Hints:
- By secondary structure, the chain is an alpha+beta fold.
- The protein has 2 helices and 5 strands, in the order αββββαβ.
- Strands 1-2-3-4-5 form a 5-stranded mixed beta sheet.
Amino acid sequence: MHQIEQLRTEHNLRALASAEEGLGLGKLPVRVFGFSYAPATETPLFARKSYHSFEIHKLADGRAFLLAFVTAADSDRIRSHKEEVDVTVYPEPYEDARTLVRIHSTVS
């Protein structure tokens, strides 16, 4: 099973309903996933993945995560640091950025 599909199943997530499209994370129910071009400010989500959009998961406890691909070295840096680190993230595997990470969202 694809890693992202596995995460959706593990967290019992459903795709956004059409009536929920365009809403920010703070206005969405829990246990949903969607896609955003703008994972900042209000982070509006949409049901369909489009070019260069990131997948966002909103879990049952209200926490939200951006799914992204990074290099193995950047993945190690993310996992080993408690403070902020600067890394380049991609919505799809790209060149050496083939490691999937979940980045906790602090925006709503």
